[in-house]
Amino acid sequence: MVHDIIIVGAGPAGLTAGIYARSKLMDTLILDAGSAGGQLVSLYPEKGIHNYPGFERIQARKLSDKLHAQAESLGCRILENEKVTEINDGDKCFEVVTEKGVHKALSVVVAIGMGMFKPRRMEVPGEDEFEGRGLTYILPVKEELVGKKVVMFGGGNSAIDMALVAGTVTDTTIVHRRDTFRADESNVRELEMSRVRKIMDAELKSVNGKDRVESVTLEVKGKGEVVERADLVVINIGISSDLEELKNWNLELTENGLVKIDPDMQTSRPGIFACGDVIDYPGKYKQIITGCGEAATAVVSAYKFAKKPYWA
């Protein structure tokens, strides 16, 4: 069977691509190396998203669920835990090779985000020892936070969002190594109005405890070493990506190691398009809504390539 389009990646951009492909009645297959949802479910499922149009605030997991359900309801076939290893030129189609088999398509959209990503580590004493025993990189559900002293590390939107979620149910402190946050101003303002305690200009020196986390040692500018009690340490300082597979797909990359595209989201290989965090261009702003917009453009371009309508 030859699909009209294969979308590699089932994060927000990939699922949106599927939704738009089905609006064109393209036979659509979506492949993901892990679980559908991308970073929304893998890194910050409890995060409140407040800048996605149509929702004043929606939990990351719920937004992922809605995108997933919509794509499936429109007829997208979604295969999880099927990592793509090669994208080869076949006979008048592409052969998308995975660890489980080969799928054929007239066009391909690459929407793998940051690839097989993992949270960045702070590389301090106690971090490895207490991971899973009071130290985590993903905020647990709110019910598990009640009564715990939570200390969050990070200064971006995700860290602040997680701190705000935790702060609604328990004693929460956010620690940032600089004197100002890099998050959106609206997020910072909400943090200022919340009961979340802030420690700025502070570096994590160690995570301490016996069987579980009991405290953290900080180096605070102007104060020296400070010990903060903690039952749960949450580290959110970004992610390290693994995009090694791109080297096997013969796609031209930018200096940053991301996929180079033209204004139609066309890659260096005709018929293969890309969208979301995996692409790079001047002025690129990595947001969920940006990736979704790029996905719509990529799919229209893929439709023109695969179906060759008279108006294209």
CATH superfamily assignment of the largest domain? Answer: FAD/NAD(P)-binding domain
For the report, how would you describe the main beta sheet?
A: 5 strands, parallel
| CATH classification, class level of the largest domain | Alpha Beta
Rounded radius of gyration (Å): 21 Å
Strand order of the largest sheet: 6-3-2-10-22
Q: Which CATH-level-2 architecture of the largest domain?
A: 3-Layer(bba) Sandwich
Number of strands: 23
* Uncertain segments: none
Determine the CATH topology of the largest domain. Answer: FAD/NAD(P)-binding domain
The end-to-end span amounts to: 26 Å
Helix percent band: 10-25%
Q: Work out the helix count.
A: 7
Order of helices and strands: EEHEHEEHEEEEEEHEEHEHEEEEEEEEEH
Roughly what fraction of the amino acids lie in strands? 25-35%
Judged by helices, strands and strand pairing, the structural class is alpha/beta
Number of domain modules: 2
- Overall shape: it is elongated
Mean pLDDT: 94
Indicate the topology.
Elements: E1 2-3, E2 5-8, H1 12-23, E3 28-31, H2 39-42, E4 48-49, E5 58-59, H3 60-73, E6 77-79, E7 84-89, E8 94-98, E9 102-105, E10 108-110, E11 118-119, H4 127-130, E12 135-136, E13 150-153, H5 157-167, E14 172-175, H6 185-193, E15 197-199, E16 202-209, E17 213-220, E18 224-229, E19 232-235, E20 239-240, E21 259-260, E22 272-274, E23 279-280, H7 288-307
Parallel strand pairs: 1-9, 2-3, 2-10, 3-6, 10-22, 12-19, 13-14, 13-19, 14-15, 21-23
Antiparallel strand pairs: 4-5, 7-8, 8-9, 11-20, 16-17, 17-18
Helix pairs in contact: 1-3, 1-7, 5-6
